[in-house]
Amino acid sequence: MRPRWWLAGVVVGAVAFTLIVSVTSVVSFAYRSPSLHVAVETAAALISLLAAQLIYGRFRHSLDRRDLLLTAALVLFAGSNLLFSAVPAIADAGPDSFSTWAPACSTVVAAALLAAGAFTAPRAVRRPRAAIRHALVLCAIGLGVIGLGTALAGDWLPQAIAPDLSPEAGTRPRIVGDPVLLGLQIVVMGLFAAAAVGFGRAAELTRDPLKLWFAVGATLGAFARLNYFLFPSRYSEYSTPATCCGWGSSPPCWPAARTRSASPSASSSAPRRCTNAAGWRARSTTGWHRTSRSSRSRPTR
Fold it and tell me: Please, what are the domains in the chain?
């Protein structure tokens, strides 16, 4: 089946699920379960780290800057989920300004890197070791700046929603919360949707299963942000069915196991890693000519 039909099926299913949850009473709109937040955010962080490791293995063999951007995006997703959401929830800090604005800001940056990885033209990285080292350092600095800035400005940051606000009271859905926070949800939804389009187009052209799974994950991530816009359950003690399904995690997390089969590092026939792109091409070309020349010059007995 072509990738476009896979994505069309995912979109139809996500739209139907969102309508059933937000409009009808077939499924409860939200569940009050603080422990579920801890489980979802911790699982999202661990799976993001796994996906980042797999994409890093792909980058070591492809030397493609798109894989470098995807690795950085997944590292940011993992750091945001673990440091800004899971750890405060485990510490039973409750919904506060830090656990609201720190993950919201870091998710915008990570989603932007994900969309950039979907649309960036393929290009070999000349110094892959230095590039991945710089990318990880920049990710750490970015998370540190966001965390420190949010902690210092905690008293001046507005509260997302009232912690005791129930989504079952009044109409369904409930678009409540700080306007800036709701605007960030729309921005992240747009970035995820753009990434889904980019990965879907790449999957159509290259038939790469990894691109297809990233497109599916980004599509679910976009609909997750739509659900958070209808009711920002991530910043309260309530969990929506979208959160229970893992939509709130980083978009390519749940199909992370599929990336191993799509990654060149998983193939036994993959070439050995080279230190730079020029050496990679030179070694491949030289080896091919040497093999061809030796096969032609070998005498026949």
Answer: 33-267 (1.20.1070)
